[in-house]
Amino acid sequence: MTGAYAQVNGQEIYYEVHGSGRPLVLLHGGMLTIGLSFDDLLPDLAKARRVVAIELQGHGHTADIEREFTIGNLAGDVVGVLDHLGIDEADLFGYSLGGLVSLQTAMRYPERVGRVVAASVHYRSDGYYPEIFEMSADSRRLPTAAEFKEMQTAHAAVAPFPEQFEAFMAKVAPLPTTHEWSEAELGSVRAPVLLIIGDTDFMRIEHAARMAELIPDSRLAVLPETTHMQVVRRGELVLPMIARFLD
To answer: Are 103 and 95 in contact (CB under 8 A)?
Structure first.
């Protein structure tokens, strides 16, 4: 594994490269790091792929900058890292925030994207269960106290400015309600897409099913007994379906 930084759009974006083969870009979840999102999956994925794992603006080793935090900006950063590495086309595997960025990259830069795995994503805010926005204390869908502590600890271990965790979380928090795609935009995706969601995820299963209907070449997998935070920790279920889809 090699970790390095790419100068992209006025920032130093941290990335890691694992393995060899056809490029597969990994994009983590919101307020998470590469490790927290993909430690359970990355070693197996790198056996047959050149895995490029990126930490997005303000996440992990990558410092925040004075720039609006939008899915479009993040998609441009991903392409910037591909340019830095001399990669013309890659497959993308994004989880939560990273899944949104993966789909946006496929929409905006179709010539750079092969296949897309998008886990735990939405296209309209009404796809979320209301309890997610209410931060209901008794919700079994929300991160547990232990999971939230993991986020803080992982951030503090590698972030250039760990004391900014709370402020950056406030910057990211509005994204689920402010980011939306039209049905026509989803219909414009030409890359084959695998959507993955947990049966106890943030989003309603019928919302994910509607996304699968709208994206022309897509399929949907629903993981049993799986919360939002657990989707990328179910390697025994996720790895075989990803391998079959990508191959």
So the answer is: no
Cα 122 to Cα 48, 179, 228: the distances in Å are 29, 9, 12
Instruction: Characterize the bridge pairing of strands 193-200 and 113-119.
Output: parallel
DSSP code of residue 215: S
Say whether pLDDT at 177 is over 90: no
CA distance 67 to 64: 8
Q: Which domains does the chain have, with CATH numbers?
A: 2-246 (3.40.50.1820)
**Could you tell me how far CA 5 lies from the centroid of its own chain?**
19
CB-based contact 30:77 (threshold 8 Å): no
The mean per-residue pLDDT over the stretch 60-75 comes to 96
CB 120 within 8 A of CB 222: no
The DSSP output letter for 62 is S
Please report the DSSP string for 171-211 in residue order.
Answer: HHTTHHHH----HHHHHT--S-EEEEEEEESSB-HHHHHHH
- Angstrom distance (rounded) from CA 94 to CA 37: 10
pTM (whole model) above 0.70: yes
